[in-house]
User: Fold this.
Amino acid sequence: MKHLLSAADLGHDQAVAVLDVAEEMAATQAREIKKLPTLRGKTVVNLFFEDSTRTRISFETAAKRLSADVINFSPKGSSVSKGESLKDTVLTLGAMHTDGIVVRHPASGAPYQIAHSTWTDASVINAGDGTHQHPTQSLLDAMTIRRRLKGGQAGQDLSGLAVMIVGDVLHSRVARSGVDLFTALGAKVTLVAPATLLPVGVEAWPAEVFHDLDRALAEAPPDALMMLRVQRERMSSAGGGFFPSPQEYAREYGLDAPRLAALAPHALVMHPGPMNRGLEITSEAADGARSVIVEQVANGVAVRMAVLYLTLTGAKEPGA
Amino acid sequence: MAATEVLDGPDIGRAVQRIAHEILEQNHGPEGLVVLGVPTRGVPLATRLAAAIKRVEPGWDQALGRLDVTMYRDDLSRAPTRAVGRTELPAGGIGGIDGATVVLVDDVLYSGRTIRAALDALADLGRPKTVRLAVLVDRGHRELPIRADYVGKNLPTAAAERVRVLLEETDGRDGVLIEGAER
Assistant:
């Protein structure tokens, strides 16, 4: 695996293989000495053109646990604020012999552009691009679901499980990667959102679509319920008018106590973070016994260690 | 390809039995012994060795585990990406090897690089009192100053030859074969 650009690039077997490696990585993180010498001498640049706390720290932790050198880049305080192009930024990194570039960018396809350019021969890992993909997030979600509901043994997939994704699917790269990865792993995916927050062409996705959360919970009871973050600014006419008001959104699509009670006893409550407590999820749901939100963050480090290991080791293919 | 069988099933059984006795002799009994297999074929061999020790010393707690060295290898940038295996230490868990006499078990000792990686992996897990190495076959061609304490069979080979260890658990039958180059 040279790059990780999209969850759709991972077939069933490769996705299972990544999760298996992630489980082994997680096992090493229970030790007293968590650092492994695996990527010693490799340099990983976190190229984040968008704000991020958990993804950047998670990638940084993962790379450091594998002994790689990590350089954090943010456009503030760099030449990007002087108008430097993506190409020139990446050429600079390429000239410094960077082995891996972890990219987050507001433009969909930016990681693909870097990976398929002649600017650098580094491995490129997509850490979220525009409204396109966020593959490591889906991998950590899949790892969390697999471990909680299937036991987490090597070779397992998500077949027979139902995953429900609720919220702003239109702007969500988490939803897109999730649909790709969970269906590849054999799970059934249901999307729940108001019509204004669904993308054009969603009927072609391998997922069932509901507009009514209560009906969806009754008709397609999920094993894992994933609440997407809703940006408050999108909730008024000033932000595009996708929904009349935050209060109405919370009432129609928020995970509150009655909806929590309607879930099956084993069902998991998930959220990619950062949460808007009181909007898409109540504190009761976020902090309840079914919530695996903190576990998702812990698994994020293991998944990113696995992805870094799989992309940065192995003999270079000739010409690659 | 010409393959010569140099050890058969009963030979392997006798070698494991002898190594069990040697370990107990040198360690003056089973006190503090921990047997760790190095995947892939070191794991079933370690299981057999532990069973052999247990037959001689029924009081031993049969401290048996596995030590995956993938992430400590020095050829990760040269060879194709390897799957990562599991490391399991005997009960007592992390730190269960502190002060113990660890016997590493592998099938073939060749360049010594796997054992170098195993020693690094071990150092991250704890501080054993002693580390010893048991191998079924020592085929020579060492690239590092590493030697085995217990050897099933010394097998002088040419570098072009390939030594294959077959075990019931992984390959369906027991045997050690030398392949390639005329003998």
Remarks:
- The first helix of chain A runs from residue 12 to 28.
- Chain A has a mean pLDDT of 93.
- The first strand of chain A starts at residue 43 and ends at 48.
- Residues 12 and 132 of chain A are 20 Å apart (CA to CA).
